[in-house]
Amino acid sequence: MTQISIPDDAPPVLAASGAWPILQARAQLDYHNTLPGSEERLIERITAAEVVLNIRSSCKFTAAVFAACPKLRLVSVWGTGTDHVDLPAAARHGVMITNTPGVSAISIAEHALALLLAVARRLPQMDAATRGGQWPRGQSVELYGKTCGIIGLGAIGRQFARLAGGIGMRVIAWTMHPKPMPGVTLVELEELYRTSDAVSLHLRLSPETVDFIGAPQFALMKKNAILINTARGAIVNEAAMIEALSSGAIAGAGLDVFTTEPLPPNHPITHLPNVAITPHNAGITPEALEAGLRMSVENIWDFLAGRPSHVVLA
Questions:
Q1: Alpha-carbon distances of 49 from 52, 74, 134, 299, rounded to whole Å
Q2: Residue 261: active-site member
Q3: Is the whole model's pTM more than 0.70, yes or no?
Q4: Among this protein's residues, is 137 annotated catalytic?
Q5: pLDDT digits (tens, 9 = 90+) for 198-210
Q6: Domains and CATH numbers, the chain
């Protein structure tokens, strides 16, 4: 039986899923429900394995990790993002990387819409004020007829475009790989920043997208603009975003991702009244969780059968 290491199921999701008994029946498992905590400990946990099923992006698969694990042939990543994997180093060491694209698209898009509505309607502030005995009035924004600018029209961006159009917003978009979509007008980035009442990010994190939005981009945006980020924290320059939110350069933000995660205690973002925040859980619904875990396991069987699927290229 193939030896599979699961070095990082913490907090545990795999062991309680429908994919677990299938995995147990077909492979020899080395399972850990704690995070390795260090590169050395990760190497220790996976050094004997041919296949790794990676659950958490906090586990970093560096060049040193691949060099220290000569038996390793596959890392099956649960999730879409692979910014925690040194893809060129994996390729040099003959290790294939697979992921689970699209399985969380609907859940993340719904979460992005929820964040947008929460900020526009000031739901966190209204909730707190009402619980405190106040009865605030007339502080919400109607989104119908407003312009929603989407950056990135992959699986998640397209689902979000559908939802934004569904509540009556005019949808415009910019994407690295243009592909027409009914109801969506493709525009240049500068026009998107200047004309959007909401800007929602749906890009992958890569060297090209780090600090993709910074001070120059915030300067182009409307003062009533709302930024939504359910992609990766590092795509937005955090200091520039905090300044834009604090100074009123933009109206608010809905954030599920941050440069440092978990968000450190007393972080400046936690003190901003015009921000709705969630703990990087946009794609963690029971439906998306089960579909993604099953796909990550199926990716292993496909690889072992000589017909790899969902391969991530360096």
A1: 7, 9, 59, 16
A2: yes
A3: yes
A4: no
A5: 999 999 998 999 9
A6: 2-103+285-304 (3.40.50.720), 105-277 (3.40.50.720)
